[in-house]
Design brief:
- There is one protein chain.
- The protein has 23 helices and 29 strands.
- Helix 7 runs antiparallel to helix 8, helix 16 crosses helix 17 and helix 20 crosses helix 22.
- The structure holds adenosine monophosphate.
- GO terms for molecular function: ATP binding; glycine-tRNA ligase activity; transferase activity.
């Protein structure tokens, strides 16, 4: 979405305990900073008291008591310093956690930095085999949860887009970020990122920062998206921020368009861009899609595809990249009726919402019942609310932790002027709160912009069952009089009169009725002309109309698939001790729905008969369409389990006899014994969600695994 106003379980030990809510951390930090400042001055005052007692040769007991009080104050001061330090170094444990997730992801080829043998290029990543499988599972679920459930019309448009389309949408002019350059080396940085780094570093490392200064830096952080180029430049100067590597001075900030430009065909005369979003492909096809849908509203179109953004200095690993997969929905609706037939299905959902009001008054996100948010007008309309609820269900069913998911409303100044309301699904990970899905009511902006530029009306009609009488304003230019007065310019004056909106026309009528003439600006002539009452009649008329023609509003949920997947990796990752206690083993707690492989099959020991059984089960799993891996290496069973846990494989079938096998569940490490013939169907049922592991556990005999896990 282009925002035109933009300036812008018990045996488990996790290495990363859930972070406290950021706002409660902020409140604690502020209190600690204030208390520390108070203690520092109390220490100073007491030190002065000791000094003056000594210089005035006060009695020994008095001096000793004052010294004791001073020492107590010093102890209290250092204890506060330690608390503040440990609060601020929360970021260190976040980084250590991130490192361990990313090491596992990279080692097991969930992702690979692109072009690695040529040292890579920032902002580009390849998905390796398990990463591809996770992505394709996420997309399959997206299609099922949205496209299938809502009968959406899926399209697939080119990535290369002609300039005219992106001029109409506003991207050519406004899809920019503010950049600064190292004045000596020319290295480019995102201006707001440098300011953000400066503020964060000061807040995290400078214990002497007064609470006022800390509040100022936090205010700057909150306002970052709102700063104009001049304001950003002024702050960079005020804080003496220089280029991070060289410490050279920086240029003033200036806008950099994030689109990758290209040219279509060999002539170089047809400029184009790699699309920065998939939405425009849907808007330009509105007329055909509306017709395909039987000229009925509401309907939604959906598209999954690559988007390209030439990010200035991509950081944050998989979260900010230069090419990524977007999944977007454009739900077209009558602006006069934004109700949704399935709204009641989500109205009782309750989750963390962070309305504008709470953000402005420094409160934190609260659990709110969606239906209440809509009925109180916090969420603008039912359809927007419906999609917020569906996005919540989508993300939590994928495995996103509901306590680290919130829906944050855009502040008024963050929102495009034409937008009715916008909410971001933000997921908390080691990088902080990350916008992963944007859900916006964009009103009629996009369709109007493309109607104007292309000359093709992108509108919908509501046919009345019976003709309706409507009052219409009729502007009737008297061509004969206008011709006499304006001769060759008559046509332009007539067009300008006919183009007046209702208010302009009524103002003109009032002036003509009272004064007999009025000054009227004709833009196409570049001058003002005098219109008198013989030249135009303006009146209201009752007319019969058979239909209403209008530009539909669009409600757009836009999903950054890579960001959702990365947050899912962090939310499902944990480590646990090996049985011997000498090793920390990594596990991804993927729900079966997204697990790259649903099951592994391995003979307990290398033995032809066991191998044959394993192959038989593998064949049945293939026939049932269950992704699995057969491992007939001689590696110890414990090592083989650990290897598959690290890929997040939820179930393992171990062949230790020719008549029955064991099935192990990844997180509990519990095992049941199942007949060979039943193994594949149990795996299918449990991995497709038709049966729970608890049900399997209560149906089949339990298998003790004391030796197996070693
Ligand atoms: P936007 O159109 O800017 O609202 O972006 C739509 C979605 O795309 C966001 O909610 C993000 O999830 C995702 N996104 C935006 N920029 C990037 C990027 N540089 N890398 C990865 N995902 C992105």
């Amino acid at each position: 979405m282009l925002t035109l106003s933009k300036k812008a379980i018990t045996t488990i030990t996790t290495t990363f305990t859930k972070p406290h809510s950021l706002s409660s951390m902020a409140a604690t930090e502020e209190t600690l900073r204030k208390t520390l400042a108070e203690k520092l001055s109390a220490v100073e005052i007491q030190a002065n008291t000791v000094r003056s007692l000594k210089s005035s040769s006060a009695s020994k007991p008095d001096i000793d008591a004052a010294v004791q009080a001073l020492n107590n104050l010093k102890l209290e001061k250092s204890s506060i310093e330690k608390s503040l330090q440990s609060l601020l170094s929360g970021s260190d444990s976040r980084e250590a956690f991130r490192q361990s997730v990313n090491n596992t992801l990279e080692r097991r080829l969930f992702y690979i930095p692109s072009f690695k043998i040529y040292r890579g290029v920032a902002g580009f990543y390849d998905y390796g085999p398990p990463g591809c499988a996770v992505k394709s599972n996420v997309l399959a679920f997206w299609r099922q949860h949205f496209v299938l459930e809502e009968n959406m019309l899926e399209v697939d448009c080119p990535s290369v887009t002609p300039e005219v389309v992106l001029k109409a949408s506003g991207h050519v002019e406004k899809f920019t970020d503010l950049m600064v350059k190292d004045e000596k080396t020319g290295t480019c940085y995102r201006a707001d990122h440098l300011l953000k780094d400066y503020c964060n570093e000061k807040l995290q490392k400078d214990l002497t920062l007064s609470s006022d200064k800390a509040a100022e830096l936090k205010h700057v952080l909150a306002m970052l998206d709102d700063f104009s180029s001049q304001e950003l430049g002024a702050k960079i100067k005020e804080y003496g921020i220089t280029a991070p590597e060289t410490k050279n001075p920086l240029s003033d900030p200036y806008p950099f368009n994030l689109m990758f430009q290209t040219s279509i065909g060999p002539s170089g005369l047809a400029p184009g861009f790699m699309r920065p979003e998939t939405a425009q492909g849907i808007f330009v096809n509105f007329k055909d899609l509306y017709y395909y849908n039987g000229n009925k509203l509401p309907f939604a179109a959906a598209q999954i595809g690559q988007a390209f953004r030439n990010e200035i200095s991509p950081r944050q690993g998989l979260l900010r990249v230069r090419e990524f997969t977007l999944a977007e929905i454009e739900h077209f609706v009558d602006p006069e009726d934004k109700s949704h037939p399935k709204y009641a299905e989500v109205a009782d959902l309750e989750f963390f919402m962070f309305p504008r009001e709470e953000q402005m008054t420094g409160q934190s996100a609260k659990r709110i019942r969606l239906g209440d948010a809509v009925s109180k007008g916090i969420v603008n309309n039912e359809t927007l609310g419906y999609f917020i609820g569906r996005v919540y269900l989508f993300l939590t069913r994928l495995g996103i932790d509901k306590d680290r998911l919130r829906f944050r409303q855009h502040l008024a100044n963050e929102m495009a002027h034409y937008a009715a309301d916008c909410w971001d699904a933000e997921i908390e990970c080691s990088y902080g709160w990350i916008e992963c899905v944007g859900i916006a009511d964009r009103s009629a902006y996009d369709l109007r912009a493309h109607s104007e530029k292309s000359g093709t009306l992108l509108v919908a009609q509501e046919k009345f069952s019976e003709p309706k009488e409507v009052e219409k304003l009729v502007i009737n230019p008297i061509k004969k009089e206008l011709g006499l007065a304006f001769k060759g310019n008559q046509k332009k004056v007539v067009e300008a009169l006919e183009a007046m909106n209702e208010k302009e026309a009524l103002d003109m009528k009032a002036a003509l009725d009272s004064k007999g003439e009025v000054e009227f600006e004709v833009c196409t002539l570049g001058k003002t002309v005098t219109i008198n009452k013989n030249m135009v009649t303006i009146h209201k008329e009752i007319k019969k109309e058979h239909q209403r023609v209008f530009t539909p509003s669009v409600i757009e949920p836009s999903f950054g698939i890579g960001r959702i997947i990365y947050c899912l990796y962090e939310h499902t990752f944990y480590t646990r001790s090996s049985k011997a206690g000498d090793e920390q083993l990594n596990v991804f707690r993927f729900p079966s729905l997204v697990a790259p492989i649903k099951c592994t099959v391995f003979p307990l020991v290398q033995n032809q008969k066991y191998e044959d059984v394993a192959k038989l089960i593998s064949k049945s799993l293939t026939a049932a369409g269950i992704s699995h891996k057969i491992d007939i290496t001689g590696t110890s069973i414990g090592k083989r389990y650990a290897r598959t846990d690290e890929l997040g494989v939820p179930f393992a079938v171990t062949v230790d006899s020719t008549t029955s096998v064991t099935i192990r569940e990844r997180d509990s490490k519990d095992q049941v014994r199942v007949d060979v013939e039943k193994a594949a169907s149990v795996i299918r049922e449990v991995s497709e969600g038709h049966r729970t592991w608890e049900d399997v556990w209560s149906t089949f005999p339990h298998h003790s695994s004391t030796t197996a896990e070693d």
